[in-house]
Automatic annotation (TrEMBL):
Family in the record: Belongs to the short-chain dehydrogenases/reductases (SDR) family.
Oxidoreductase as UniProt keyword: yes
Reaction(s) this enzyme catalyzes, per UniProt: prostaglandin E2 + NAD(+) = 15-oxoprostaglandin E2 + NADH + H(+); 14-hydroxy-(4Z,7Z,10Z,12E,16Z,19Z)-docosahexaenoate + NAD(+) = 14-oxo-(4Z,7Z,10Z,12E,16Z,19Z)-docosahexaenoate + NADH + H(+); resolvin D2 + NAD(+) = 7-oxoresolvin D2 + NADH + H(+); prostaglandin A1 + NAD(+) = 15-oxo-prostaglandin A1 + NADH + H(+)
GO CC list: cytoplasm
Region (Disordered): 250-289
Role according to the record: Catalyzes the NAD-dependent dehydrogenation (oxidation) of a broad array of hydroxylated polyunsaturated fatty acids (mainly eicosanoids and docosanoids, including prostaglandins, lipoxins and resolvins), yielding their corresponding keto (oxo) metabolites. Decreases the levels of the pro-proliferative prostaglandins such as prostaglandin E2 (whose activity is increased in cancer because of an increase in the expression of cyclooxygenase 2) and generates oxo-fatty acid products that can profoundly influence cell function by abrogating pro-inflammatory cytokine expression.
Protein EC: 1.1.1.141, 1.1.1.232
Keyword terms, alphabetized: Oxidoreductase
Protein known as: 15-hydroxyprostaglandin dehydrogenase [NAD(+)]
A GO molecular-function annotation: 15-hydroxyicosatetraenoate dehydrogenase activity
Keyword Oxidoreductase: yes
Amino acid sequence: MGDLKDKSVMVIGGTTDVGAKVCDALGKEGVKLTICGSNKAQGEEFTSSLVKKYSPNLQAAFSFTNPGDRASVDTAFKKAKNTFEYVHYVINCAQIWDDGQNWTTEVDVNMRGTFIVSLLALEHLGTRKNMSAEGATVFNVSSTLAFQPNYLMPIFGATKAAVLKFTRDMGTEFQFGLNKIKFVAVCPALSRDEQSTFFNMAQTKMVLPYDELLNAWKKVQINNFQTNEHVASEIVSLMKSNPKNGGVYMIDGEKTMPPPPPATKPTSAAPKGPPPKGKAPPVNNPDRFNLNELRTDVTADIEKAIAATKVSELSKYAIFVTGGANGLGREIVKAFAKEGCKVAILDQDQTKGQDLAMELCKVHGKAAVMFFQCNLTDPKSFEASMKLAKSQLGRFDVLVNNASCWADNLEQFDKSISLNFKSVVTGSLLAVNTMGTKRGGEGGLVLNIADTLAFIPAFLTPIYAATKAAVIKFTSDMGVSQHYAMNKVGFLSIVPSGFSGSSLFGEPQNKIMVSGKDMMEPFTKSFDMKQAKQTAEQVAQNIVKIVKNGERSGTFLVENGNFKKIDLPVVSAKPVLM
């Protein structure tokens, strides 16, 4: 075991909960401690109390830090280096629990904050930009909820899945070779203190505020869980043990965490079959087809001929596709339109969206496809467009959250979080509130598009891959039987491997995390879409097949022009490694 005495340690989120206990445990080791927190008065008082408690062995300074604010974190790094000359360890403990009205703040702190701290660690401590740097070790605190089912906190679990995936990709040999910084993921099971807080929380902090769900979870005995002190002690022990770069360490050393409780009512697996049938969209609605003032050459005779070909079991349903004007989204729109579905394109690109809608209407009938311009990263714009689309199409049965982008560098990665994950959560919750039977809907289906980079090493695109890991975890937790029983809305993750025709990873020199000419060759080789073994059209066709199969939950891998349902790894809560 190594000695931490006189090592410089920076703890983000160090004034409350596990972070505060970590600081206290480090105080006993005689470290040089920079405590970062968002409450200045509380932080200064806590820091002063630790110095007094462990004097003269402990040197400590407080830095007012908002983990989701780049400038604030940058200042904290500078203060730590100026005060103690260097930073040997960074421990990122900052997190909040709020899947309700403040879920975007939860994402900003838990997920975005981890990315900011980690990327600034490269800037300040990495050898690529600092010739005198010694390297460092970054510990990112995730949770066992990153890989264990939890229907009450799907957004929280998704943020922790993103932290876990990001940390593993940053802990690859390739990344270490660039900066000599080790990255380690720590996954504590829920502590007794966290459970107590969670049980007493207001229902406004639940993703879906239903009494049935919360009451079932409260049956778990909170005295079976470990303490924050134990978690902190294990983190300090891990620091001393020279942990493996890219390692994942689970902390659950006192009691075994029980599995999630069963559904509130005995239910069989979510039934297969097409989305719930209801009334067909009205035919003679004077306001229905005038949104885009569609210009078509479709005659009455052509309309009859088209109608005669609509034999698909999906033909009565309305499909909403985000990012449907370009790339894979465009092919998804075309594939569902071919089935006779009414399709709404929700996209920012007005020119391509309207052109595609008019093109497909000439083939499949007047107003078979309609375009609705919206900013998917703006919840109000998303909601307004979704309501308008339902009004114009007459119903809403399936949402395909397809829109995504790539940008991993410090200046642009917010785009990846906002479009790839936040918009998926926004769309999913809007869909549940619109289609769900709790609100008078008929049920339906949500398909969230991920990427195989969520599963495999992605050392060149760690933030993009992390957002896709978050999508899969969120979708998995929203698709459990407890949620389906409440609303009859199914959730599927669609995970395509690389396909030709994609421009997603274009302009790498402007978007890659670590810039430099030496990075272009490995990137180009890794993302040569010409080597893909399937097309976007084949991926879209498989998505239609999955919906036709009547799948209501699960994760589906689409590769080599075919699909298969895959099981996500679920880790038991027995003590592992720690």
